[in-house]
């Protein structure tokens, strides 16, 4: 087949357009196989010819990019080593001359010959008192490109240079018919977006700076809309399933509970509670995310939802990420419910239900009993870890799943929890890691979002300080003195370690603490081999503290490798103030609630993610006494890692932190969680920079899917979804409609 007589579109194989040699190179180096792959391989940057420096104006030490022609090129043996230098003189259009020296002379001598026009970029140095570029970056320009106002610079590899890519792109654009634009014309007109064909041409071959902006803006829209359509389809697929309607029952368990609440709900708790209550009353599943900073009082919101569901004759399951947290949730739910949670026991209220804990640590007999309570419907509320409930439990009538501490949980896992049956339970997801709006609209885009923005009254401030051992080693002593002061004042303290330790490296990661977490730095026991000191381990340091700095205090040790009943016993002892200091790993990160704990020391704080630190800090300042949080690190000043710690110290506003987090973290990690395909369809979209587009795209997507649930009238948009989030995801929501 030749390119001339065949229709060339985005799916055409490149071999048919640019020949086998170039096509093979693109396939091998960049996995670019089709015309579409290539035209979606956008320039990384542009060199504006109008802004290029003349050679005559170059200054020593500056980083310069010049377009010039090779005037002379001479191969010379190097003085001190084997091999040859290529000594080159280049000349720009204004007649300025400059020396350039290239190593690997032999390899370059056929590429850099007199008459070659090219882009040379590098730092201006001197040799023999003359300015020169030493081994500059070098991109040959063909005649056409060298007269264009902008030179497009592509993501390239050692074996495939930018200019070859540019040439292939131009060859393709020359013969490509403009693709059918997937965006509805009304949308395009209202948002002032360029047509797809034009945008694709302009992003590769711009005439003006405005061309570049307009092209990018249009292509960003494609990506944002692709993502939002995928999410709208997801929402649609979930909410169209039937769910048990549980309208409030006057005089029921929830009313009884509200009547005995020892405090008044915050306005936020009341408002979110009303939203949740309305959702639960419908016969389609609720899918709601409640976000509220650490200590905002999310548990009550969840409990009230669970009681409404129990009033409706259904069961509720509450899932926690760790056994420690599940056990603690069960305990605090029972405490809050009092007689209302002791069905079957002596002195229970008539309306009472039963809270059943289901974790891996239960003995066989207790476990059978718990499973039976869930299956028979005797347990109105079942609390457990994600894994356990997902795998083994049959419920009589599961009406609501509450997922606590969502930041460890992905979109797929949420889908799994909704079950495969026709009927879906309502779902309430709670996160203490506030999410910037754009992230909420993407990663959590399958959920409606409610926010608890105020903390209950009577919370105490937490003062956070970075303890920089690199600059102030003597402060280490003060850390322990501070802990002793808190204990002497009748309070308790946490000391957190990044690692469990105790020898065996392979088994060193904390099985409980190391759940999938978007922002846990990927450093375990291997750090030592990588040249960095291994992170401090609780089992290694605890004996030293016991005999040294914390001698005489009652210390407990908590980590994920302890047998579960021991974990529980330690946690109970700490809650009962039988321990002064808890030496722990991040198992205490989420949800643990001991108001008397006022001090938190985080050792090797640099090893933790930003939101993890915020979570950890949230364990103190939960009572009436002010809290203190000390972030101990030996990472020196002036590094991004220290910036991260300073950010945590500078604000206790979780929203502000999540924004900083997003800035410091690679966005790809966030968006990556959305994609299942081989190749990322998201090249330009930024959660930071494109909030406005993402917000509008969400509105359009919801509207389009509302009118055309299978996207049958919008085949171009259906294809866009596949391009953006991968064909598997597309198939999951489109092909079954
Ligand atoms: P989080 O949102 O971090 O899960 P919790 O639900 O654990 O917070 O609540 C933290 C503490 O605040 C608990 O001890 C809880 O009983 C208490 N609390 C919750 N709501 C209120 C309120 N409206 N007034 C006073 N205290 C409250
Ligand atoms: Mg909580």
Automatic annotation (TrEMBL):
Name of the protein described by the UniProt record: Probable DNA 3'-5' helicase RecG
Name of one Pfam family that matches: RecG_dom3_C
UniProt entry tagged with the keyword Phosphoprotein: no
InterPro entries attached to this UniProt entry: DEAD/DEAH_box_helicase_dom (IPR011545), Helicase_ATP-bd (IPR014001), Helicase_C-like (IPR001650), NA-bd_OB-fold (IPR012340), P-loop_NTPase (IPR027417), RecG/Mfd (IPR047112), RecG_dom3_C (IPR045562), RecG_wedge (IPR033454)
Source organism: Pseudonocardia humida
Family matches, as CDD domains: DEXHc_RecG, RecG_wedge_OBF
Keyword Transmembrane: no
PANTHER family noted in UniProt: ATP-DEPENDENT DNA HELICASE HOMOLOG RECG, CHLOROPLASTIC
Domain Helicase ATP-binding span(s) in chain numbering: 279-452
Residue ranges occupied by any Helicase C-terminal domain in the UniProt entry: 475-668
Keyword annotations of the record: ATP-binding, DNA damage, DNA repair, DNA-binding, Helicase, Hydrolase, Nucleotide-binding
Gene Ontology MF annotations: DNA helicase activity; hydrolase activity
SMART domains referenced in this protein's UniProt entry, alphabetically: DEXDc (SM00487), HELICc (SM00490)
